[in-house]
Amino acid sequence: MGDPHRVGIVGLGVISRAYLDTLAGHPAVRITAVADLDATRAAKAAETIPAAQPMTVERLLGDSDVQTVLNLTTPAAHAGIALSAIAGGKHVYTEKPLATTFRDGKEVIEAAAAAGVSVACAPDTVLGTGTQTARAAIDAGVVGRPLAALAVMVTPGHERWHPHPDFYYTEGGGPLLDMGPYYVSALVHLLGPVRAVTGASSRLRDERVIGSGPRAGERIPVQVDSHTSAVLEHTGGALSTLVTSFDGVATTASPIEVHGESGTLAVPDPNLFDGTVRHFELGGTDWRALQPSAGYVDGARGIGLLDCIAASGRGGPRASGVHALHVLETLRAVRRSSAEGRRIELTTLVDRPDPVPLVPAKEWRREGGLRAGPG
To answer: Rounded to two decimals, what is the model's pTM?
Structure first.
């Protein structure tokens, strides 16, 4: 089975807890180092992880005992941390988005290829039973030929719950770049890559009020658009309508619906790993729930890294950097289309990621079924 893969974590904010719940103590992984701009935060995290040493970011990126850097910094730092890790000969798994600009994302992928290391990127939620069961149903012809999809994310904004929401409203944030990766990644798994986009966006207000934590009541500036609508043209011919908003209140729409010539699928929230996939067939009278048939059962954040570690025998990670770059270009093209008022054709060309078979939780959690991987 080989030795556990040695991982160093950079960035120990809110999302790190979800990753640590999955990875700390997993037989495929040994977390050897943790780093954060806040040294106290790194020290406290290290106390809860056997064998992990608190370090400065610079030291971790140069540490020979780290094989893969798990990059959980804020979006503006993603590309810089990734490039420094790659320069040190390390693999990278990064939180979404891959970078805040397409140019930076492309530089990361090209640098990794030149260095002979791998890059993978969240979201890995789309590897769970929700999106993967829907994909298996589409591939089996349950809805016939896919014609269109609707993907909707409406919320009044993350400042209502996040104690430090500033980065959601700066460049690299906003609902499109923050939540869009979940929905566009799912659409690529379901319907294939995107060839062109048309978008429009708006901004409801220029300030937000933090609703919780030590800064509750503080006003923060909004520097990006907070509502975006777009049409995505998939290479297979299907058209997806995407709506992401930090300005609305609620919606009754399914997170994703896929419409085919002989049926419709209601797909669960791509920000979650599981959920019920529902099918309404042509001529039917009601929705029918589909049993999970594909994906990592009881998936959790970090499964994408485990999948990446196991990918050497399969041809590459499913949550690959190449696919993340395609998703990033799609989102940035929507922004550009909104600004320029025209249809934008994409330059990245990718295949659909490999599907995930139904993997029981006990196999990926503790029994080492995903253990072999890059050294």
So the answer is: 0.93
